[in-house]
Amino acid sequence: MAVSVASGGPVNAGLYVRYIFYERSSVANCSAVAIYADIHNFNCAGKLVYGSVPGAGSESGLQMEPRTLKNIKVLGSYTLPSSVLLVLFLLLLAFLLTLWTPMMLTTAFLSAAPGGVAEMGVAASMVHADLSMVSGYQLFRVFFIMFVISPLLQRWLQRSAQNQ
């Protein structure tokens, strides 16, 4: 089934739905769909948030290939403890952020959590955290990695290659 999109020609309907609800999960896209479908009095914010969470989880699940997980028990023995340690470290970091700033614990936890900006934004919206603060911290993390960590790592790798 093909759907005509204003920016291009016909596209796969499944891909277009995935684009709307996962890649670009925003109230503006939901409103555009509601206007296009001629739906009146449609609460985009609530329906979009509840619809995008399963989409984000499904997308992560579809990216995994079961045949590559040959030693699932060994992988699980490393994954479970590291995940628990990550959550405990994030709770400690979030608690410290609440001491240093006037942030709520949920906002601080989602601000420090690794993950995509869109996923943390959806989670922040679901738990009624400060969405602008979570997005700001997440964007700062992305830009810090791109513009500070990446060049430093590149220099370090070049120097270590020259010394060998």
TrEMBL record:
The chain crosses the membrane at residues 74-97, 103-127, 139-157. GO terms for biological process: regulation of gene expression. Keywords: Membrane, Transmembrane, Transmembrane helix. It comes from the Bacteria. One of its GO terms (cellular component) is membrane. PANTHER family: REGULATOR ABRB-RELATED. This is Putative membrane protein AbrB. It comes from Aneurinibacillus aneurinilyticus ATCC 12856.
